Amino acid sequence: MTIYALSSGPGLSGVAVIRISGPETHKVILSITKRSLPVPRVATLSKFIDIESKELIDEGIILWFPTPNSYTGEDMAEFHVHGSKAVIQSIQNNISKVKNCRLAYPGEFTKIAFQNEKINLLKAESIGDLIASETEIQRRQAIKIMIGKSSDTFNSWRETLLKILSNIEAKIDFPDEDLPIDILKNVKKDSEKVKAEIVKTLNDSEVGEKIREGFKIAILGPTNAGKSSLLNYFSKREAAIVSEIAGTTRDIIEVHLNMNGFPVVMSDTAGIRLSEDEIEKKGIKLALKKAEDSDLNIIVFEPKSLDFTGFLDDLDLKKSIFVINKLDLGVKKTKEIVQYNPISISIKNGTNIDKLLSQIKKNLQSKFVSVEDTLITRERHRQHLEQCVAHLDEFNKKNNEKDFDKAAEDIRLATRHLGMLVGKVDVEEILGSIFNDFCIGK
């Protein structure tokens, strides 16, 4: 089957790129241009003709990539045409008239590239992350993975374990033969080294995932303290409804921000108070859960609510910044609040917001201090590495030669998990979840 899709962004544009890949690509070119195939990998000016009416649709550029020298490894072409909806629709309609051609699914071009071994699984994921990147640090992380930083490390560990496995299996297959003492001695040593390196990688405070998904900041506090106003101030728009009526916010409101180059997901939550309203109680429960899952909490009070501190017992105060809003009304700090070294601000007047921002940025920078060494960017990576460590633990518990069969299986399973990271083994069950996140046309 041959697939096609708009690869550039939807909407009006100066130029639109329509991508085609598959065995019928050359037929598409011949049918829609009424000319011979262009020179491979050379931009060629061409007319695009309606297959049935023979009318001119547009004039643009064709790029022709014969197999195997293409992004997907199949015959592939790109039509660079004017970016109007009418032109794009007309050309796609004409492509669909060629037998065995259909519209591509999300991420299908990259999935085919992976299946044809043009890229590995980590590079496929990083391409998706690069497309979705909104901040410089996200772009840099995606590029590092794309050029093979993680792949090289994971493959190196895998090759070491494969070598260990071959030595153990040699002992199993030829029990009467004595393997060199150094080899058997180094088996444990090498496996321990790999395990130690993986454990070190896992102890990264989940920096890679935070960069990819965004640093989670929750704004909490009593009702009418100014939480929604603070969210709106940071997002520079009316993201949350602001009202003098207590309990207006009942659900979680999230905005994605770029703070000093760091990706942030900031959440406004329901005001915390004693309430008999079932819906509001659910909102308060969600707020406390969001605080538990966040990387940083901004706890906002105002002069009338300084005595309402009971809910703090349920929070991790080590990851919290305390704020007293409405400085313009005058603030008399209570003993309970003073111990948390709060920042007094006025969202209404913009007073001391810079101090709060500075504190948030310091927190961000401290969390991302080890970004250069990041190898893990997804929960999938972490789970496979944790499973690999578990199997290596089991392997290292076996010291008797009678346990060689079981030891071989431990190493085999550890190797399999490393292979699944880069796509060296059957990974069909995870392909859908990865490539469905892509946009159509990639």
Which class of secondary structure composition applies to the elements? Answer: alpha/beta
Order of helices and strands: EEHEEEHEHHHHHHEHEEHEEHEHHHH
Counted beta strands: 12
Strand order of the largest sheet: 3-4-5-2-1-6
Task: Please estimate the helix content.
Answer: 40-55%
Mean pLDDT equals 86
The named CATH superfamily of the largest domain: P-loop containing nucleotide triphosphate hydrolases
Give the overall silhouette.
Answer: flat
The tally of structural domains comes to 3
Radius of gyration: 29 Å
Q: Proportion of β residues?
A: 15-25%
Q: What is the count of DSSP helices, taking H or I runs of 4+ residues? A: 15
Quaternary structure classification: single chain
CATH topology name of the largest domain, in short, is Rossmann fold
Note the main sheet: 6 strands, mixed
- Secondary-structure arrangement, i.e. CATH architecture of the largest domain: 3-Layer(aba) Sandwich
Uncertain runs with pLDDT below 50, 5 residues or more? none
The level-1 CATH class of the largest domain: Alpha Beta
Through-space gap between termini: 17 Å
